Design the sequence.
DNA sequence: CTGTTAGCGCCTTCAC
DNA sequence: GTGAAGGCGCTAACAG
């Protein structure tokens, strides 16, 4: 800017205004300035602007794993919702580790993001780090793995209803012995899933067999072991509802090894609907699509809302309806 | 800082120095400052620091798709290599679109990143936008889909050798009719792959059958169609080398539909080694692992090198050896 | 060991 | 319509 001002023999102020299309600036001046700026391929220093405006136009995203397609789709939604509003996205992976998440948030605060979208790590047990962000005036929107806080919006899917529909679907196919490979009890979604499962069985007056309900700890070994245990039951399940496609895949492997034919001797339904399931010879017969892209998109626009209108504290809770996709 | 200075009755400078553990500051003063800062849960305004230091400690990453596991692994490598040096990562997806890539770079420049890591979009045909970054003093490191520029380092894998080994492996298994499902001719890697393929055949004195060499355009339909054409040849291939696991999967589907048994009637080897291949009942018998994580890591550290020592323009070209993983 | 001063690049009253 | 001056929060000579 200084350079432009010098070359044109005008003041920096004028340059600044010309560049912003300030109304009360001479048309000729404006044109000359903009043209010269172009020629010098001037790019405004956003650091300086940030300092002045107290906005960086960066938003932070903290989520467990980018390698999970669910989250990379979510990020894409976030990107699409923010990019043309001029925001850039800072991504940090928590790897489901509390400590990592904490430092991630801290680092984002230091980097001066205008807001944060987070999907809480499964290892997180206290929420002080999030409050810190809020205390610094940084709004947070939670998605997928949400926690419900006073002033923060969140968007998540209705797991209960997803599980309900899945089980309902299986029962209507004539399957009554349905097992549930559920997540760790620390996650809220685990409860909801159980809920939907139980409610669907109840609807059809099928008694809940507690041996069919299994809590997994996210390690592959655990999944393999507990699936094997299920199959060893005197009355093994005819169908399995898995809380994640990956879990279903691991479980299917166990079944195959025992000579069970997928989608004949035993049926699978799982959450998430990873695109690569379509490459499988025997994919789960149904998946519960949770629309990660849309979730990310929604979360991001709520965040931008919160950033740009900090006054009107309209906390929102958006519940997305999952959809049973039958193959 | 002002607040701390006021409360302690000292100058802002002293506070600043105390916070940075400046050596020539009174121990007592320092402690008092740091303690108060803690209590006020003061977080330095990095925007201001950036303005002063002319560094944002942000680095940009531009790549085609985060949803491809290859790239999300690369990002993870980048993250790990930068995070503890105090950098944050701004991610933008180009979706292989030139225009998107261009705006991405532009936006990163505006946001004042200290450097950029990029995997060039397949749709990119001119490199002016990259030069722009360089003109603004922003170093770039290319990885995977690299272009070779005067002052920019790059890291990529030795596709030729990967293809060579793959074909060599197949021949040693007694397979001689080997087709190559290659990428679009616009990508440099496509050439190299062809090269390795041809060289391996040559080594075993197998003539190159040009009907076996197929250029794909990255759409699924194209893959299906051209694979079918391969199988329709008077002498169909016994094995297929695919330039990507996803391509192999699509091609395998075609084979299956025709009643060919994977890994019996026809064999597959592909590049990339996606983790989910292990879930397949009949995965490619071998994959060419390209170590995306390590590539990202390396690219990022080269970038940091370039950022922190802008004087010593040591352009580096790192070639990673891929590895044939036999299942 | 500590304070004074100037300035990073830009925006924004306020004055002309 | 344009310019001068001050300041965003912090750092870094330069003085004591």
Sequence:
């Amino acid at each position: 800017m200084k350079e432009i001002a010098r070359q044109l023999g005008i003041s920096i102020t004028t340059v600044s205004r010309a560049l912003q299309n300030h109304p009360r600036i001479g048309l000729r001046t404006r044109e000359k300035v903009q043209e010269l700026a172009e020629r010098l391929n001037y790019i405004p220093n956003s650091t300086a602007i940030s300092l002045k405006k107290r906005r960086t136009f960066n938003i932070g995203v903290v989520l467990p794993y980018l390698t999970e397609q669910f989250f990379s789709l979510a990020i894409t939604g976030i990107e699409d919702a923010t990019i043309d509003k001029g925001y850039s996205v800072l991504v940090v992976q928590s790897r489901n580790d509390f400590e990592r998440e904490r430092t991630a948030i801290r680092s984002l605060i230091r980097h001066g993001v205008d807001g944060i979208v987070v999907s809480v790590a499964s290892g997180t047990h206290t929420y002080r780090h999030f409050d810190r962000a809020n205390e610094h005036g940084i709004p947070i929107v939670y998605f997928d793995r949400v926690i419900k806080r006073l002033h923060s919006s969140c968007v998540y899917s209705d797991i209960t209803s997803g599980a309900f529909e899945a089980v309902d679907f299986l029962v209507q196919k004539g399957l009554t012995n349905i097992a549930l490979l559920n997540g760790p009890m620390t996650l809220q979604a685990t409860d909801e899933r159980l809920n939907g499962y139980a409610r669907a069985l109840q609807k059809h007056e099928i008694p809940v067999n507690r041996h069919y309900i299994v809590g997994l700890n996210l390690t592959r070994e655990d999944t393999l072991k507990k699936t094997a245990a299920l199959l060893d039951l005197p009355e093994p399940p005819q169908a399995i509802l898995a809380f994640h496609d990956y879990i279903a895949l691991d479980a299917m492997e166990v079944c195959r090894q025992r000579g069970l034919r997928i989608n004949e001797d035993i049926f699978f339904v799982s959450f998430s609907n990873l695109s690569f399931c379509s490459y499988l010879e025997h994919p789960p017969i149904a998946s519960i699509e949770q629309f990660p892209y849309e979730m990310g998109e929604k979360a991001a626009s709520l965040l931008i809302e919160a950033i740009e209108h900090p006054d009107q504290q309209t906390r929102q809770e958006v519940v997305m309806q999952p959809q049973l996709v039958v193959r």
Observations:
- Chain A has twelve helices and twelve strands.
- Residues 292-308 of chain A form the longest helix (17 residues).
